[in-house]
C-alpha cells in the first residue's frame, strides 16, 4: 500500500493523489477556457458525426494536436466529457499561447497522420459553409 502511494506521489511531483487530481482538473478547465477565448471552434461530437467521433478517439487526451496540409496548420483538442472538439487555426493557437502567458497547461504534439483530421475538417466546412464560430 505504501509503495503504491509513493508511486502516485512520485508521478505527481510530491502531490497526494487528491492534489494531483485537483491540479489536473484545474489545468483542464483552464485549457478549455483559454482555447475558447483564443477563438477555437467548438465541434460537437455525437452519433451523427462518425468522423468527428473517430477524431475525438484518436487525439491524445490532454494534448493539443497539430495538423498540417498544403500550408494550412490547425490545432485540435478533445473534451471527451462534453463530447466536443476544439479546433483552431494558427492565429487562434498563437492567441492561446499569449493568453496562457507561458503556463504549460497541456503539451502540443504533431499528428503522425493527418488524414482523419482533414477529412473531418472538410466535412465540417461543407456543413457550415466555411463559417467560423461567431459569424
Could you walk me through the main structural features you see in this protein, from its secondary elements to its overall organization?
The protein is of the alpha+beta class and 135 residues long. The chain has one domain (28-128). Helices cover 49% and strands 21% of the residues. The chain has helices at 2-11, 17-38, 50-58, 90-100, 115-128; strands spanning 41-44, 63-69, 72-79, 84-89, 107-110. Strands 1-4-3-2-5 form a five-stranded mixed β-sheet, with helices on both faces. Strand 3 and strand 4 form a beta hairpin. Helix 2 (17-38) crosses helix 4 and helix 3 runs antiparallel to helix 5 (115-128). It is globular.
* Number of beta-strand segments: 5
Bulk shape: globular
What structural class do you assign from the helix and strand content?
Answer: alpha+beta
Backbone CA Rg: 17 Å
Low-confidence stretches: 1-12
Amino acid at each position: 500500500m505504501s509503495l503504491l502511494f509513493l508511486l502516485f506521489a512520485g508521478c505527481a511531483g510530491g502531490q497526494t493523489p487528491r492534489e494531483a487530481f485537483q491540479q489536473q482538473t484545474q489545468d483542464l478547465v483552464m485549457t478549455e477556457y483559454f482555447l475558447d477565448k483564443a477563438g477555437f471552434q467548438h465541434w460537437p461530437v455525437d452519433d451523427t458525426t462518425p468522423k468527428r467521433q473517430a477524431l475525438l478517439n484518436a487525439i491524445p487526451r490532454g494534448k493539443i494536436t497539430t495538423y498540417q496540409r498544403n500550408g494550412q496548420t490547425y490545432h485540435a483538442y478533445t473534451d471527451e466529457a462534453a463530447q466536443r472538439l476544439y479546433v483552431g487555426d494558427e492565429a487562434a493557437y498563437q492567441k492561446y499561447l499569449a493568453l496562457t502567458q507561458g503556463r504549460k497547461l497541456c503539451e502540443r504534439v504533431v499528428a503522425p497522420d493527418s488524414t482523419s483530421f482533414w477529412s473531418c475538417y472538410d466535412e465540417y466546412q461543407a456543413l457550415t459553409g466555411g463559417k467560423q464560430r461567431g459569424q
